[in-house]
Amino acid sequence: MRIDLHTHSTASDGTDTPAELVRNAAAAGLDVVALTDHDTVGGYAEARAALPEGLTLVTGAELSCRLDGVSLHMLAYLFDPDEPELARERELVRDDRVPRARAMVGKLRELGVPVTWEQVARIAGDGAVGRPHIATALVELGVVGSVSDAFTSEWLANDGRAYVEKHELDPFDAIRLVKAAGGVTVFAHPLAVKRGNCVPESAIAELATAGLDGIEVDHMDHDDPTRARLRGLAADLGLLTTGSSDYHGSRKTCRLGDCTTDPEIYGEIVRRATGAFPVPGAGG
Hints:
Strand content: 15-25%
Shape: globular
Helix content: 25-40%
Largest sheet: 8 strands, mixed
Distance between the termini: 21 Å
């Protein structure tokens, strides 16, 4: 089985619609794909309706969190999407995205970049606006060569000149909320240092004590020594280890299935979940 547990659609900051994403996942030879848009499950119904035969869909979300001033992302799988407290927190995060993006556009203009809110809004479309949309605007303007080039201290990284903080969950609260909704939590790309500051390993240990289920080890932003270090940490803490592409369509260079999760780990995630269940495709 080929299992990719971290992908994004136009419901947040990917370039594939949810329907295109599941079709592309099947074409890439995946057996299981998780749709994990940022702070939303808005693309799930479309993905499920278009699900090809032979592909299983896992509902999920990538939750925006902050711990001691450091941003981090928490992947949540197979939770009840209608559980009110978790739904309310996701809505708070989403509601802050527009004013935050407008503020970043304002900072960029102060730095002499002729970006406009109208340009960013066009790029985002109906998705939850975020930094990748602003980065795409910088590519269109010729300010940077690629989306990843915009995520530096020069521009949009966590310590960047145009960075603006947003409402984010405390990760301990995120774990509690996801668990209460019957879901499973995995810390996304925990040592992706190219994205900015990362929380220390001691914090990962504290999250594990609080109920964190796993950490994402095999990811494009982790080199081989980092992956080995994370596998050792996971073994010490009794955490599951996952692998995923973090696919964003044409917005990033990674492809569906570039990194995958072991079927036994996937089976354990499904076993632990009580809020929702994977949906096998029937040729949508």
